[in-house]
Amino acid sequence: MHAPGVEVRPLKQMTGSAEFNEVFFSDVRIPDANRVGDVGDGWRCARTTLMNERTTLAGISLDPVSFLGGTRKDPWRSFLESVPDRRHPRARQQLAQLYIEAEVKEITAFRANSARRRGMQPGPEGGVNKVFNAEYNQRRSSFAVNANGVAATAWLPGDAATEARVTTFLRARANTIEGGTSEVLRNQMAERILGLPRDPDADKGLAWAEITRN
Asked: DSSP character for 193?
């Protein structure tokens, strides 16, 4: 990462933090001693790394409120307590839907992690769950903010729970970008899982060094 030509540009988020980056390579040369895998096999190594990352991100839910006060609470119970009018029929219906989606997500993440523990290569579950989890976090954090009305737009100093809830809402916007955008992952699922036709690729079969550049 400190080699000449490697440039890291932090991406500043709406929360004010920068937790992931753009990385640019300009005429970077890597010694053969640092090579991973065979010559010409770099894309397979990179893809395996990305698939492991997506499997990890697929299991992450944003629950900062559940850690407040130094004591970890059950994330779902913490989320329920953040909804002031959870007896309202519409709120109950939305909560039930979110609970169902959370259970489906956890089961799929368990399948992917179980396969990895058996020494298998990461499968499509990582990409599928990464897309689902990113959009699930956005739906859930949006619901929590909407359920709290004006309390989620202005709060008293020291109200750490509301501040964490709003930060979660803002932070969730990045979930569909980091670790592979949802648009790219949907293309991969369409081609590699559903078997849909790929876009024409004039550089198919060429090594990276032979690909046409502008």
From this structure: I
